[in-house]
Amino acid sequence: MAEEGSAKGSRPGGIRATGRRRKPPGRGRRAVTVAAWSAVGLTLAAGGALGFVYVQLDGNLKGIDINAALGTDRPRNVDDGSMDILVMGSDSRKGANGKYGTDDGTSRSDTAMILHVHKGHKKASVVSIPRDTIVSRPECKKTKGKGTAPAAKHAMFNESYQVGGPACAVKTVEKMSGIRMDHYLEVDFSGFKKIINGLGGVPVTTSQAIKDKESHLDLRPGTHKLNGEQALGLVRTRHAVGDGSDLGRIKLQQAFIKALITQVREVDLFGSPGKLYGLADTATRTVTTDSELASVNKLLDFGKGLKGIDAKNAKMVTLPVAYDKEDPNRVIPMTGQADAVWAALRADKPIPASATKGTVSDMADTEGVVKGS
């Protein structure tokens, strides 16, 4: 159980918080992380301009009481001006998502991101956690059926969401990082497409041709303005670029996220109330938040606190991992370097380059293939 009095900067097991405070994937599961950032980006851009419609949009939001679900077995609650948000995506095949695969009644998470907003809210650090990372999963209350899923010392990270939903995903992240999550954001990939289309597309430049039959993407080298379907194809692309690894795909996602942040900030939403309302309606119907953000007013206040962050001030890394010797299709955290990443966030400091340099995730061969335009 986490020790409530743990000091700032200490290691996992009862660690300080930074504020108050889910086999290869199916075809559709590769876009969900970027979808979640889309909702964050829209919140940054919209600011107070959505106030006049908040009553109409409030009913769209779905909230989950993470605090009640996890109780006191969490890292210490310390308000130092920074903030940590677990950003995830759902791969449920219900409704509009059915076109990406058969609905088996379950949901999993793809790559998760920890968004750390530094004190002053002018800079952010983002840590992607590969879905196949082997972690020690804590005991979690099951989302289906009754009872509790016992703790597992050797489990894939994305199984946490499948077993216990958002609360278990948050609990797993907090146990592995020692950082208390202030908030939770989740989006599905059908909403991602709608958001991209609502923005009028996202410009990117590709340094090489990308042709992927599975994701239905066919891009020549050069500059493109991707619509929702093309953007979904890009962030799902795995085998068409680099060595086909999930780590390479994460690099593509991170590059697209930066392009998306730039586009969200450049679109004149304030000059087009109709577009602004349409995007807000889409975002609020798509996003699931923790209960503390589950109103438009609260979500807007949250967004206003992030509006000073642009793509240049968002440092994106992947958790330092190595391939598992027992199963090359899985990865395991590199203890020393992963600890350095978590320690930096707990201390509200930039992630040192030495923490990720030379890791398999750092050397993924899709670096520079996609850039914002």
Account of the 3D structure:
The protein contains 10 helices and 18 strands. With 373 residues, the chain is α+β, with helices and mostly antiparallel strands. Strands 1-14-9-2-3-4-15 form a 7-stranded mixed sheet, with helices on both faces. Strands 13-10-18 form a 3-stranded antiparallel sheet. A two-stranded antiparallel ribbon has the order 5-8. Strand 6 and strand 7 (148-149) form a beta hairpin. The termini are far apart.
In a few lines, what is going on in this structure?
The chain has 373 residues and is an alpha+beta fold. The protein is built from ten helices and 18 strands.
Which labels suit this protein?
373 residues; disordered N terminus; globular; alpha+beta; seven-stranded mixed beta sheet; three-stranded antiparallel beta sheet
Q: Judging from the principal axes of the Cα atoms, what is the shape?
A: globular
Structural class: alpha+beta
Percent helix, as a range, is: 25-40%
The ordered string of helix (H) and strand (E) elements is HHEHEEEEEEEHEHEEEEHHHEHEEEHE
In the sheet with the most strands, the strands line up as 1-14-9-2-3-4-15
Whole-angstrom Rg: 19 Å
Helical stretch tally: 10
User: The biggest beta sheet, please?
Assistant: 7 strands, mixed
Strand fraction = 15-25%
Mean pLDDT: 78
Low-confidence stretches: 1-37, 41-52
How many distinct beta strands? Answer: 18
> What is the straight-line distance between the termini?
47 Å
